[in-house]
Design brief:
The complex is a heterotrimer of chains A (302), B (437) and C (289).
Chain A: H1 3-9, H2 11-41, H3 57-64, H4 66-97, H5 104-111, H6 113-116, H7 119-130, H8 136-143, H9 157-185, H10 189-197, H11 202-230, H12 234-239, H13 251-259, H14 265-290
Helix pairs in contact in A: 2-14, 4-9, 4-11, 9-11, 11-14, 13-14
Chain B: H1 7-10, H2 17-30, E1 43-49, H3 54-71, E2 74-80, H4 82-95, E3 101-105, H5 120-130, H6 135-141, E4 142-143, E5 146-147, E6 150-154, E7 158-162, H7 163-168, H8 178-190, H9 205-216, H10 233-245, H11 258-266, E8 272-275, H12 278-284, H13 289-297, E9 298-301, E10 317-322, H14 329-340, H15 342-351, H16 368-371, H17 381-384, H18 396-403, H19 406-415, H20 421-435
Parallel strand pairs in B: 1-2, 1-3
Antiparallel strand pairs in B: 3-10, 4-5, 6-10, 7-8, 7-9
Helix pairs in contact in B: 3-15, 9-10, 10-19, 12-13, 19-20
Chain C: H1 16-46, H2 49-52, H3 68-76, H4 79-111, H5 116-126, H6 131-145, H7 151-157, H8 159-175, H9 179-187, H10 192-203, H11 205-221, H12 224-229, H13 238-246, E1 247-248, E2 251-252, H14 254-281
Classes of the chains: A mainly alpha (302), B alpha+beta (437), C mainly alpha (289).
């Protein structure tokens, strides 16, 4: 090997080279504007007017603002409930799809559909399904004689929360399922063979082979799933715009509402910045909590 | 820089407008013509809101084409859903690049007045020739004495109701006061043909009727000096009224966005709501016999007057703004002038069956208002409406409160019983104070 | 070649009825729930307006199917142009992101250069930033670079949310590939580049496809940036175009909206069906220990 190629095979040099494209893109289009955004949160910038530095005044106000507090609560409820259900259903669906079923590949392709349709458009379909006067769900239930009044899906605070969560789950399950399925398929069949020769029941196999082998991918998928849910915007924007009486406002939608239509750029930026600590906590939790394997070990559980 | 405008002339009372319009016909020929000399090679990009009614856009584009033929200036028009124009305009204002002209709504221009081209000469000229401007048009067009936006007109707002259902509820004509209005709603509810007014985060419809309600009882978010004044016994009265009104609505109104009431009205689910002329237009131009029937049976009425004793309606208002960053300010002004001249403006109103209500008294004579008596109630939308931010002045604070649904949320919370009247008012007061710092 | 060997050890002991209860019925329920909104979209896009707003009749069927909504979509709007824009933007953004992510994931996960752990964490944190806060500062930047209102504005900004995800997904995959392989290859004198292209990438194909599909879909769906950075109608993407130009004031054209959603999903659906096959078949090259 020549010196040059040895130089390029050096871990650190090569690592740096390999990191260059991703690093450059992220630094320029993400870190820099992020800094700009955080800075905005400490100013009273309005649309079309550069702000003055006002320190933490935006945050001081937000702490006392009941709408903001409600949006934090909503964001948590929305994220926790939707993520837990998405994970459970997604894992179940992945296990089902991993079995020998007829039309396997066709079914797998079909399952992904909800994830394919642009969110905004599927949200509109849901809006149509949830409509207070034309809801097909209500229509069916009325015809079946189960209810006598149309369900007010988006008009009651708790029902509206539930309805938006269901729409979010519907969109998210295929994504979780397909990623976990991909993970399931990387588990060598020999491990199951070995386990069944050792007399492990299907449940034990799941517990001691599947889950440990899946854990890295679960960590990644769930972390991102939580992130997407936490910063969700489109679905709520189309379905309720944060209504009824702010019951479904998430931090992202509130930040947008105050910054763009409302013109209070600084305050909107502060709300968005306030999401960061929460997200950080969520990420660290799933990153260290779900990833039981040691960083250095690439192999299976010994 | 501020031009000294001849404000005392402009403050000519709008009420005199109707009386003035006859002499004005004569004056028109004498009014000095004004035209701006477009820059050579000028090209314009216009961003407008997506039509509410088909005829509006068709005629607007036809007028634009006429302008291009006459002047050789190429005009590209993009249309977006009206609520999406707002972020676009905001970004354009912020980064100093985008369309030359934006057709915007409500108090948007007042959020970035210093990014907009001063168009006093054009507005004064139009005011002389076709005016005077109604007070609401002045409120929306001027900021700190500068003309920053050309008032295009109001989207109009009226009670839309079903004649037969109203009669069945025991009313020969639409009630003119808030007490009668409540009785009508109760009667409609009893007959199973309820009313429905948006209480969700619907920028147009919910803000429209909610502001009417609060103002009708003499309550207001801010007083003349822009001090928050919502915590008053008038507001309590308005909310108590809303609490009685809300149970008469069809279930689900808390979630309603702008399209919901159109849909519910056209399907016969509700028989009373507030809206521009777009419901009627959709029914009238439909080839479905059921819709035709609704068109025949429906009618419009001006908003009832509350205890305060004068009309207090609120409606969408449309303005045209030219950004300072445009390379062709004269071409842009010339285009707007052309579009506001009677040859174009009247045709445009006709095509949209009066969706846009004129901001200038002269256009009251437009036959569009009399050709179908169901159009007539919309005729005075601009004249009767109060501007956003009433009784204070318009600016970032008024736009912010509107976009943040301070008044709508207050009514929705009190009416649905989620908060007590007192709590709802205190919450609204706190939020408003934040904007009106 | 597709794998036919049973994955579950005790498979031959499972009776048919039991399989129905544990596999088929739940799967059918899943499919029903996941597909119903699509059925509803299809039905809506062929329903004449009169039927859409009538509360009588059977809503699950169309009495007089009509193609009006599709006609409106293709002849009355710039839909075909939006479609073309979306395809170009999504493909380019996906390609850029995948390439950058493969290198980054390999470097972090396998090379473990100095500071790789911190870098990994940093990339992870990069996802923390909701587009709703970035878009104003980004808009200013996009304008300063002079790509405002062009496809480049989207192709260059989409990777900001695609790279973190793809990198992490790929790291997970790379991690599941035994280290021994790489060590053997190194001992045999292979360069890192050869290891990456000859060993790791072929093994990580399913991961690449997952990441690619994911990135493509996310780009296809992106709304906020596309709404902000694009202003001319001819440069719009499908989601933004449909929403901003088919919603007219306070009138929603349900039929045309649903038709737009359906047609807008087709290219992705075709791509998926093609890749899911590949994805299943490509799995069998699993590592034998």
């Amino acid at each position: 090997m020549s010196a040059v190629s040895r130089f390029f095979d050096n871990r650190n040099v090569l690592g740096l080279l390999f990191m260059l494209p991703a690093g450059a893109l992220l630094l320029f289009f993400l870190t820099y504007p992020l800094g700009l955004g955080v800075w905005l949160g400490f100013t009273d910038a309005k649309i079309g007017r550069v702000g003055e530095w006002i320190g933490i005044e935006n945050y001081e106000y937000l702490v006392t603002d009941s709408v903001f507090r409600l949006s934090v609560f909503n964001t948590f409820v929305y994220t926790v409930i939707a993520s837990v259900i998405k994970f459970a259903l997604g894992l179940w669906l992945a296990l089902l799809l991993n079995k020998n079923i007829p039309f396997k590949s066709f079914v797998r392709a079909i399952v992904l559909l909800p994830f394919i349709v642009p969110t905004v458009l599927s949200a509109i379909a849901f809006w149509w399904i949830y409509d207070a006067q034309f809801s097909i769900v209500s229509w069916v239930l009325v015809k079946m004689g189960l209810i006598d009044q149309y369900i007010n899906f988006l008009g009651e605070p708790n029902l509206a929360r539930m309805s938006t969560i269901i729409a979010n789950i519907w969109r998210g399950v295929p994504f979780v399922a397909i990623c976990l399925l991909a993970g399931l398929q990387t588990i060598p069949p020999s491990m199951y063979e070995a386990a069944s020769i050792d007399g492990a029941s299907p449940f034990q196999q799941f517990r001691h082979v599947t889950l440990p082998m899946l854990s890295p991918i679960i960590a990644v998928v769930m972390t991102f799933s939580v992130l997407f849910t936490f910063t969700d915007f489109q679905l709520i924007w189309v379905l309720t715009r944060g209504g009824p009486i702010n019951a479904t406002h998430l931090m992202a939608t509130l930040s947008f509402q105050r910054a763009i239509p409302g013109g209070a750029l600084g305050e909107g930026a502060a709300i968005a910045t306030a999401m960061i600590p929460f997200l950080l906590a969520a990420i660290l939790f799933s990153y260290f909590g779900l990833q039981r394997r040691r960083w250095q070990q690439g192999g299976g559980d010994k | 820089m501020t031009r000294i405008t001849r404000r005392h002339f402009l403050q000519a009372s709008a009420a005199a407008g109707a009386a003035l319009s006859a002499p004005m016909l004569a004056r028109e020929s004498m009014a000095q013509e004004l035209s701006f000399k477009p820059e050579p090679g000028a090209k314009l990009r216009v961003l407008r809101w997506k039509r509410f009614v088909q005829g509006d856009e068709d005629q607007w584009l036809a007028n634009t084409k006429k302008f291009t033929e006459k002047t050789g200036i190429e005009v590209t028009t993009d249309a977006e859903n009206w609520e999406d124009v707002r972020p676009k305009a905001a970004v354009a204002a912020n980064i100093g690049n985008g369309p030359d002209i934006i057709l915007s709504t409500n108090d948007d221009p007042h959020q970035y007045p210093d990014k907009l081209l001063e168009i006093g000469d054009l507005c004064e000229y139009l005011g002389k020739k076709y005016g005077p401007w109604y007070p609401s048009a002045l409120a929306y067009g001027k900021s700190g004495g500068r003309w920053i936006a050309l008032p295009l007109g109001s989207g109009g707002n009226c009670m839309n109701y079903r004649e037969s259902h109203m009669k069945a509820a025991g009313f020969k004509e639409f009630p003119k006061d808030t007490d009668g209005f409540l009785k009508l709603c109760q009667g409609l509810k009893k007959n199973g043909t309820p009313a429905g007014f948006a209480l969700g985060n619907a920028t147009g419809d919910a803000n429209g009727w909610c502001h009417w309600l609060v103002w009708a009882f003499g309550a207001k978010l801010v007083d003349e000096s822009n001090k928050v004044a919502i915590n008053s016994k008038e507001t309590v009265a308005a909310l108590e009224y809303a609490k009685e009104l809300y149970p008469t609505f069809i279930p689900g109104t808390l979630s309603w966005l702008d399209p919901n009431n159109n849909k519910a009205f056209l399907s016969g689910e509700i028989s009373l709501t507030s809206n521009g002329i777009s419901i009627y237009y959709a029914a009238k131009t439909s080839n479905d016999p059921k819709m035709q029937e609704i068109a025949k049976d429906m009618n419009h009425a001006v908003f009832p007057v509350g205890p305060v004793g004068h009309p207090t309606m609120s409606a969408l208002f449309f303005t045209c703004v030219i950004f300072k960053f445009t390379k062709y300010p004269n071409a842009a002004k010339e285009y707007l002038r052309f579009m506001m001249e009677k040859e174009q403006y009247e045709e445009w109103q006709k095509a949209s069956i009066g969706f846009v209500t004129q901001p200038l008294t002269f256009y009251e004579r437009n036959p569009v208002w009399t050709v179908d008596p169901k159009h007539t109630p919309f005729k005075f939308s601009c004249k009767n409406m109060l501007a956003n931010g009433y009784a204070g002045t318009m600016g970032t604070a008024s736009a912010g409160c509107m976009a943040d649904f301070v008044v709508v949320n207050m009514i929705a919370e009190a009416a649905s019983g989620n908060l007590s009247v007192k709590e709802a008012i205190e919450k609204a007061e706190k939020r408003a104070k934040r904007y009106y710092r | 070649m597709a794998s036919t060997e049973p994955r579950e050890g005790m498979h031959y002991l499972e009776s048919l009825p039991r399989r129905w209860v544990t596999v088929y019925i739940p799967l059918l329920v899943f499919l029903f729930v996941l597909l119903f909104p699509f059925y509803w979209m299809v039905i809506t896009s062929f329903k004449p307006n009169a039927e859409l707003l009538s509360t009588g009749g059977n809503p699950f069927w169309v009495d007089e199917p009509t193609l009006d909504h599709f006609r409106k979509l293709f002849l009355g709007t710039s839909y075909p142009k939006w479609m073309w824009n979306t395809i170009i933007v999504s493909v380019s953004a996906t390609f850029v992101s995948l390439a950058a992510s493969v290198f980054a994931a390999y470097a972090i996960e396998r090379l473990r250069f100095k500071g790789s752990r911190q870098t990994g964490l940093a990339i992870f944190l990069a996802y923390l930033i909701p587009p709703s806060i970035l878009f104003i500062p980004l808009a200013m930047m996009v304008f300063q670079i002079g790509i405002f209102d062009t496809r480049w504005a989207l192709i260059l900004t989409y990777p900001t949310f695609l790279i973190p995800f793809c990198t992490w997904l790929l790291m997970g995959y790379f991690r599941s590939i035994p280290f021994e392989l790489e060590e053997c290859a190194l001992i045999d004198g292979a360069t890192r580049w050869q290891i990456l292209t000859k060993i790791i990438l072929p093994l990580a194909v399913p991961g690449l496809i997952s990441a690619g599909i994911f990135a493509f879909t996310l780009s296809w769906n992106e709304f906020l940036y596309a709404l902000t950075f694009i202003s001319a109608s001819e440069n719009k993407t499908v989601p933004v175009g449909v929403i901003t130009e088919l919603v007219e004031g306070d009138v929603y054209h349900w039929g045309a909206l649903m038709a737009g959603a359906l047609v807008g999903s087709l290219p992705v659906a075709i791509m998926y069906s093609f890749f899911v096959e590949y994805y299943v078949a490509g799995m069998t090259g699993a590592v034998k220990e």
